[in-house]
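Late entry, evening session. Most of the bench is empty. Finally got around to the prediction I had been postponing all week. Sequence below, unchanged from the version circulated by S.P.
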Amino acid sequence: MEIGPQGASASHAANPTSLHDVYFRVGGAAVGKATTSLVVNSDHVIGDHMWIWRGDHGSGIGWNTNTADTGLVVNGDDVTMYGLFVEHYQKHQTIWNGNGGRTYFYQNEMPYDPPTQAAWMNGSTQGYAAYKVSDSVTSHQAYGLGSYCFFHANPSVTAEHAFEMPNRPEVRFRNMVTVSLGGTGAIRHVINDRGGPSNSSTNVANLVSYP
């Protein structure tokens, strides 16, 4: 699904596009594949309760079967998300490229099924962030974020961090948590190089704010 054309720049502040109770599922009922499930190009879009999910059970499920890179890419400016759920994608779960974005409550489960660490590498970095604010972004706010790992296919798999953002004064995250469910796999840091770990020794890690 794509909201607005690539390169959209018109202001919709007076009449924003609004998405309510929108669901995506890649695999589960049968084999499904997707590169990106939702791309938001328009400015001033509002999302209210969205579940963007690469299936982790049912029919047509497997690391090389229901392939899907990224759940959500936001290119537009001044986009706001309330109750955003993005789960199990094989690269970044959410990528935010626009300025002025805001998220209020974000729930994520990393992919459960990387067969090896080598299969889930972002260059030289172990794993992919669940929520990445791109390096070019100068303003962004996110409140109440959780990311969970359960690497049952290979419990030795590690994610370097759950959340990733540029170090700028107007890019701010508040109230974050990472969890290693049953100690099955590890998330080394909550955000960038701060907080954590969540692993077999310490399942839950909290971080109040960054920076």
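Two things to note before I forget:
The longest strand covers residues 140-149.
The CA atoms of residues 174 and 209 lie 4 Å apart.
Will write this up properly tomorrow.
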